[in-house]
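Crash report, auto-generated. Payload:
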Amino acid sequence: MKAGRKNKLSKRTRKLKISSGLYIAPSFLGVMLFFIIPFIVVIYYSMINNPISGEFVFLQNFQMVLKNAAFKKAAMNTLTFSAVAVPLAVVLSLMLAILLDNKIPFRSHFRTFFLSPMMVPVASIVLIWQVLFHYNGAVNDVLVALGGGKIDWMKSEYSQIVIVILFLWKNLGYNMILFMAALSSIPKDILEVAKLESATSVQTFFYIKFRYLSSTILFVTIMSLINSFKVFREVYLLTGDRPYDTLYMLQHYMNNMFKSLDYQKLSAAAILMSLVMIVIIGILFIVENHFGKDVEG
Amino acid sequence: MKRKVCAWLLMVVMILSMTACGKGESEGPEFVYVPEYISLPADDDSNVNVMQMTDKNLYYSVYSWNEETMESSQDFYSLDLTAADAKPVKMQLDMDTMGDYMQMQIDSQGNLYLATRSYEEITEKDENGETYTSYDYENAKVEIVKFGADGTESYRCDITQRMKAVQEDEYISDYIQYMVLDKAGNVYVTNGDTNIWVIGTDGKLLCEIKSDNWFNSMGVSKAGDVYISTYGNSGQVLKKIDLATKGFGEELSGLPNNFYGAILPGTEKDFVLQGDSALYEYDAQTQTYEEILKFIDCDINGSYVQNVAVTQDGKILVYYRDWNLGTQEVVSLVKKPASEVSQKQMLTLGGFYINQDLQSSIVKFNKSNEEYRITIRDYSESMGDDENAYEDAITLMNNDILTGNAPDMIYLGSVNLQTMANKGVIEDLSPYLESSDKLKREDMLESVLKTYTIGDTLCAIPTSFYISTLMSASSIVGDEMGWTMDEMLAVAKSMPEDAQLMQYGTKDMILQYMIIFGADSYVNWETGKCNFESEEFIKLLEFANTFPKEYEYSEDMPTMPEMIQSGKLLLVDQSISSMGDYQIIETIWDEPVTCIGFPGNVGNGAILMGQDAIAISSKSKHKDVAWEFVETFITDANAEENYMWGFPVVKSRLEAQFEEAMKPEYEIDWMTGETLLDENGNPVESSKGGWGYGDGIEFNIYAATQEQVDAVKELINSTTTLYNADMEMYNIISEEAAFFFEGQKSAQEVAKTIQGRIQVYVDEIR
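Recovered output after restart:
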C-alpha cells in the first residue's frame, strides 16, 4: 500500500514537473534564443581564425587579444574609470540619501534637482558637455577670464575627470532614490533602541543602518558598474570612433573590431570582459553575504 | 487540464514563430522577364534620333545628309512592334522647316507632337568675298508642333521668347529636355532648368510654372497627371503639377536611391520608375516602391537604355543603344513564371559603381554561356544622401561576406583591398593565371601584379592603370625618383620667396597629399610603432601651415605653364595614364623632368591606381567560372581593337602603345592628300595632341623620344605601391591639425594628441 501511494505521489510529481516545464518553456526558449545561443555563437567565433575559413584555433585569439596593445589600453582605461567612478557613485549617493533623509528645508526640490538628469536625452547631455568642455567652450572661457590657460579637456589627461563628472551627474539621482527607499525601510524600533542605549550616529550607521543597506549597496554597486560600461555611449558621441587614448574604452575596441571584420578578436574580448565581470560580481555577492547575513532571512 | 492545454498551445505558437525566423534556402523570384529582341531595320541603324514607344508602335526619326545637295533632313517612321517582320513605314508629315527635333510624343489618337528647333537662313560672305547660305545658329526658334494622325499640322506654338525671358545670362539654353502629355492633351515642356511651359489643346500657351529646384525628370502617372522629380528636403521627390494653381501639389517621397531616369505610367501601381540598373513600380498611396526587374538580368546594359515603355498587358519595351559596338535594339521583356524558364546557375558580382564597360561584358557573358549567368549586386544603389551612406553600404557588404552571402566576384573600385585580403576573403589568382590559356604571367607587367599581391595572395589583376606622382624639372630635384620630407623642404627653401610648392596648395591639401601618399614614413607597420611626435612630422605640420587656408582664385592669376616657366612653381601633381601626360609636363618645362613622387621613406613616391580590378571570393562555389569571366574581361579590354584609357596591363599592348606614341605624324594637304614639306624639303611634323591653358596658351606634343618612353617605363616598373588611402588616419590628423592651423595649439601639442590617437588605431589593426 505504501509502495502504491509512493508511486502515485511520484507520478503526480512528475506530472507537476512536466506541466511546470511547459509553462516556463516559452520564457526559456526566449532566453535561449536571445541570450544563450548568441553567447555560444560568440564563443564559437572566439575560437576560429576568421569567419570565412572557420578554422578552429582554440585559445589563439585570446592570446592575441591579451597581447594586443589597444586591448590592454582599453582594459586599463575601463578598469580605472570603473574603479574611480563606481565607488564615488555609491558613496556620494549614499551620503546624499542620508542628508535628504533628514528633514532639511527644500528637501523635495533637492530631490528633483538630483533626479532631473535622468530625464535628459543622451544627445542633449552630449551637447551640453561639448559646449562646456570643448577647447573653445565655456569652462575654458572662465579659466581664461580668471587668468589661467586653456585646457583641452577631452584630449588630455583631464579627459577621464570630465567623463567621471558626467557619469556622476547622470547616475547620482537614481542611486540616491534607491538608497532613500532602503533607508526608509529600516525598522524604526531598532533605531529607537539604539538611541535609548546611547549609541552615537556613527555607531548607529555602521552597526545597524549599514547592515540593512548591504543588499541595496550591492545592487547599486552592480548597477553602477553596468552603467560605467554604458558611459561608452556618451564618450562615443563626444569623441567618435577613436578618442584620445585615456578615453579609449573596451567598447571602443570591440566596436572598431566589428567595423574591420575582426569578429574573432571582438568575440574573444567580449568573453574576457564577461569573465572579469563575473568575478567582480561574485566577489560583491560574497561581501554582501558576509555583511548582510544578520538581516536577511 | 486547462493549464496543460494552454501550455501546449503556447509551446506550439513559440515553435511556429521561430520556424519563420530562419534564413532558410533562398528561393528565387516567382517571375522573370524573358527578352525578345526586335532589331531595327539595317539601313536605319545609324542616325536614329528622337524616339517614342507606345504599346504597339515604335516611332523614330532618322537624320540623313545629302552629299549632292549638301542638305540634311529628318524623316519620321513608325514600326509595328506586334507584327513579325514588320517594316518601318515613313510618316508623311506636312513639314517645311529645317531644324532639329528634340522631343516627340504620340497620344492615343495617333497625333504626333514635336519639339522643334529651327534656324533662320542667312547669307554670309567668305574670305574671298563670295556669298553663301548659312543659318543663324545663335538665334534658334523653339516651337511645339502638333500633327494630326493624317500628318497635317494642327498647331504650332512658338515659345522662343518665353524661354529667352527666363534666362539670366547671355547663353540661352534652347534645348527642350522633356516633353509629356497629360490626360487632357495639354503639352508640358521644359528645358530641364526650373521652368515648365504648358501648351493647351488649342495650341496656345496656357501657363508657365516655375520650380525652386532643378528638375531631374518629368513624366505621367497612371491617372494621366504630370509629375516632375526634383530634390526635396531629404532626397528626391515627385511633385504633381497643378494647373489650377500654376504650381505644384502633392509631393511623394520614398523613391529608389538610384532613380534618375524616366517617370512612366504604371499598369498595376501608379508609376514605373527607371533607375540606373533597374525598373521599379511605385505606389503613390503607400509611397513605397518595389523592384520589377534588373536590366542586367534581362541581358541589357542599364547604362545604354535610351527609352522604356510599359504596355497595357504588362510587357516592357526597352530601346537601348550600345555606342561602343554601334548597335541598337528594341527588347520586348515578357513576364513569365520562373518555373517555365530554364534557369542557369547564378554568380554574383558585388561592388560599388559598377561601370558600363563591365556591365557590357557581363551581358556578353550571359548571352553566350549556356550554363551560368552573372548578376550584379551594386551596393552603391543602397546609398542615400546622408554623410554615413558610404559607411553603411560598406557595412552591408561586409555583413554579406561574413554571413556566407559573399558575392562570387568583388569589384575593387571603392573597396579596401588590404582589409579583404587580411581576412582571407580573396582567392589567390596565381594558380589560375599559371594554368590559363588566354593570359600568361610573363605577358603581363610584373610590377602591376606585385602591387596587387598582398602577402602571398595575388588578389586581382586590373585591366589598365595609371600612376599618380609629383613631377618637376630634373635640374631642380635631380634625376632619381623618390625623396624624403627633409629633401623636399630643403628644395622648397631654395626657391624664391614668392614661388609655390604646388599650384592651388592649401594647408589641408598639402597635409592630405603628404599623409595619404607618405604615411609609411610615420608608421612602422611591422613593429606597430608610430612616430608622429618626431621632428619630421612637426616640420610637416609647420610646412603645411605656411600655405593659405583657402586658395584665392582670381581671373588674372598666372596659369600653371606661366608659373613653371617663370620659376614660380616647383611641383606638378600629375596622373600619368599615357605618354602624352608625361610629355606635356616636359614640354612646358622645356627641359628633362623627373617623376620625383610624394615625399616619404618608401619606394619611388608614386602610387598605382588600377582600373576595373575584379577579385574572386575565396568562398565562391564557382571559382572556375568566375575566373573564366575575369580572364575574358581582361583579355577583351586589352585587345588591340578596343579603346583603352590608361596603360594596359598586357605587355604587348603597352609596347604597341609606346610604339604608337613614338611614331611621328605629318601634316597633310587635305586637298591633294600629299605630305606638306618645309623650306628644307622635310615633312612637317604634326601635333599628336594639344593642351590649352588660359587665353591662347597652348602646348603641343609630338612623337615621343626613346628617352621619354624609357623614363615612363622605369616609372611603371618601379611603382609597387597601390592606392589604398587610409582616410581614417588622415581624418584624425586633419581634425587635430586644424587646432594648430588656427593658432590655438602648438605643433608639439597637436603632434602629441595625434600620436596617442593613431597609436591606438595602429595597435587595433595589427
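Post-recovery validation: The radius of gyration of chain A is 25 Å.
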